[in-house]
Hints:
Layout: H1 3-15, E1 35-39, H2 46-55, E2 65-69, H3 80-94, E3 100-104, H4 113-121, E4 126-131, H5 134-142, E5 149-153, H6 159-165, H7 177-193, H8 197-201, H9 205-228, H10 233-245, E6 249-250, H11 253-262, H12 269-281, E7 285-288, H13 295-300, E8 304-307, H14 311-317, H15 323-342, E9 346-352, E10 358-365, E11 368-375, H16 382-399, E12 404-408, E13 413-417, E14 420-426, H17 427-431
Parallel strand pairs: 1-4, 1-5, 2-3, 3-4, 11-12, 12-14
Antiparallel strand pairs: 6-8, 7-8, 9-10, 10-11, 13-14
Amino acid sequence: MEREVIARYILDFQERKLPELISRELKISITKDAIVSIIGPRRAGKTFYFYQLMSNINEKDKNRILYLDFEYPELAGITFKEIKEIVNMHRELFGNEPEYLFFDEIQNIENWEKPIRSLYELKRFYIFITGSSSRLLSKEIATALRGRTISYTLFPFSFREYLKAGGFEVHGKYRSSYEESMIKHFIREYTRSGGLPQVVLNKDEEFRKRFFNEYLDLVVYRDIIERYGVKNLHIVKVMREFLISSFAKEFSIHRFYNTLKSQSIKVSKKTLYNYFAYFEDALFVYPIHKFSYSIKEVQLSVPKVYITDTGLLTRTMGFSGNVGRLMENVVAIELLRRKSYFAPSTEIYYYKSSEGKEVDFVVKQGLETKQLIQVCYDIADLDTRERELKSLVKASKELKSEDLSVITWDYEAEEEYKGKRIKFTPLWKWLLL
């Protein structure tokens, strides 16, 4: 560790003004009795969420903050043993011990949990950590840091945050005609370009195109190839393309294996399962499993997969015309966001009967099925309407749920179908509930 370089890094942060912020919906508990961990996909705004927390600390007390971003070149090569030494260096520079410790992208430090646990046990610090790796963080949290952490997942901007970033905040239940027409304009852009903060705040099309292409490369090279020492770059890239093209659909490792085999590409199923886990770990893909009362059947079911941001689907793979699937991806990520922010005990599944009737989302809390949700762009098509509603009614009877919803593009109503009340809600209105 070069002490002068680290000292300059700490002093530079103290002199820097915190940037303008879009207030996020995630609320956390701040306490010295637990380490707060914020996990989230790349570029979802974890660093700026740290800044949001810091902004609540009086500016004149900024020297009570120590912030270390382990993706900065200045901190390259830092070892876990040197983290406590840097905390002591802060005391030398300012004559006081930092009270708030912010460690950004902590998974880049091998054995990071050892100094974090040691600092926590002193009970003198508010400790916050972020990471772009769900598995690496959860593994350490479940072992060395068991019982010492409160974990949260930060997602890209919700639609409400997206509107706020564009200077268009919504309040209350009722909207003027102008507000509603503007919201309908924004929902098209949100569905197409997603909610990653840098993209939302930069409207330049060339920037967006480059951003998403580089994002995909980061996921492959930094989060999978480098992190896990994977040698087969070609298959990782092929899997990435298959996952993207399978969004809002079932993704079977077995079928993917057979596809590769038909192309004379040799790889074991075990390796493919590992690679899929790496994409999940990087919070690039979110698998949702089929509902069953048997835990074993849930775990063995073929999952439907959803991508962390729809911009990755439309800007790199040209799926902008597939509005129905894009809507379903938006709904999936929103349900996972609401689970993380407001109802951690909620479980999300999809339903599929033995006859092949499907419901996009089953929302379960404890032993109770709270809600069944279909997502349908063209509800006016009679065949589509009949298929979607029949599946809802079938699932309603089997899962004993009476809260039945269809999320549409612009149709709103409440209707009775085969003795069941079904609520139709436009996507933009559902996202603002």
